[in-house]
Amino acid sequence: MNVKKLLKKITPNVLLDAYHYSMPLIGSVIFGFPSRKLIVIGVTGTSGKSTTVEFITRILEAYGAKVASISSIRFKIGKDEWQNKLKMTTPGRFIIQKFLRQAVDAGCNYAVLEIASEGIKQHRHRFINFDMAVFLNLTPEHLDSHGGFENYRNEKLKLFEVTKNAHVVNTEDKNAQYFLDIPAKKVITFGNNIEHINLQLLGEFNQMNAAAAMAVATHYGVPKDVCVKVLEEVKGMPGRLEVISKDPIVVVDYAFTPDQLEASYTAVKSFSNNKSLVCVLGACGGGRDKWKRSVLGRLASQNCREIIITNEDPYDEDPWEIIEQVAEGVEGKKDEFHLILDRKEAIKKALKLATPTDAVIITGKGAEPLMCLADGKKIPWDDREIVREEIAKLEKKE
Fold first, then answer.
1. Tally: H helices and E strands in the chain
2. How far does Cα 395 stand from its chain's mean position?
3. Both 229 and 335 in a single domain?
4. Which of 177, 211, 233 is the last residue of a domain?
5. Which of 52, 125, 184, 354 has its CA 20 to 30 A from that of 89?
6. 43, 136 in Cβ contact below 8 A?
7. What is the CATH number of the domain that holds 39?
8. Which distant-in-sequence residues (6+ apart) come within 8 Å of 389 by Cβ?
9. How many domains in the chain?
10. What is the tens place of the pLDDT at every residue in 150-173?
11. What is the pLDDT of residue 345?
12. How wide is the angle at C-alpha 99 spanned by C-alphas 15 and 23, nearest 5°?
């Protein structure tokens, strides 16, 4: 166990909470409360946060605003952007406050932030003057960390509690009323009232992400036709149902919850005209949400012709134990799935197993640039680059 984890284990929760609360306070003081000079939009939910942040950013930019944004994909200030390599959706310590100061100094009007429950739990949303909070959806996730679904939901609600001006809520989600019950000057809803947008992105669920972005942008005065034009021009999102190859069909996706995984399998089947699936999956976040591992295995067995279960982000947990727990959920395919620790070898295996009637889908990491191992070690990683390298090798052999 590294020193950081040991200190966390032996420090009383009240002191840890005080520490986490003090960090954004100190940061906001050091950087001069920069969010007061920006229109800050916080986007939360289990799925679709990064895509919605990107949609909102592009729409506002198309309408002439200068925008800063943080998502699990990237940091962006105006035209400058860089990959998010922190393995954090909502960065901690002074990072957000420093980022917002840089955004102000660069002349930005808006900041669009992806807000995760783990970040809220550690008070990373504090001392940010949110003008708007956006709720997308809620399904079970981070249950071990939060101590159950209700606590997980309550963390999400805290973003709305500190946002007094405008709330945007997806009324299609069964948890919507909890968010609607929190008062705000303006409450905007989306759901049944959406119209279909001809997105180039895979996945019907992206219609809801687009509807959220449109609800946000129209509130700030962007005409509806501008929103639709921008949304329909978006060709893809890094690591979000990203098509790496069309011959053979290979898709890389970030999905790591049961709902996300099932939606991704459905999307790839639709895109490939119902080709059989060869899937590569694991269970990210060693030590977290062990309940979902067998569920992911079961979903793979229900949707895929061939299954390769592999390593993802084991952290300090034995990666073989994670793999075996995913495999426990596989139904009726005991002779048709493979356990391969080396993720690169797993991807190679999937590409070799795929026939012309198959589509390959690799889930769990998407565009993440790192793999997290024991004792805080991180190694460079990119599923997409490995796919490209291995396809090039196979083509060369032919």
1. 15, 16
2. 32
3. no
4. 233
5. 184
6. yes
7. 3.40.1190.10
8. none
9. 2
10. 999 999 999 999 999 999 999 999
11. 98
12. 10
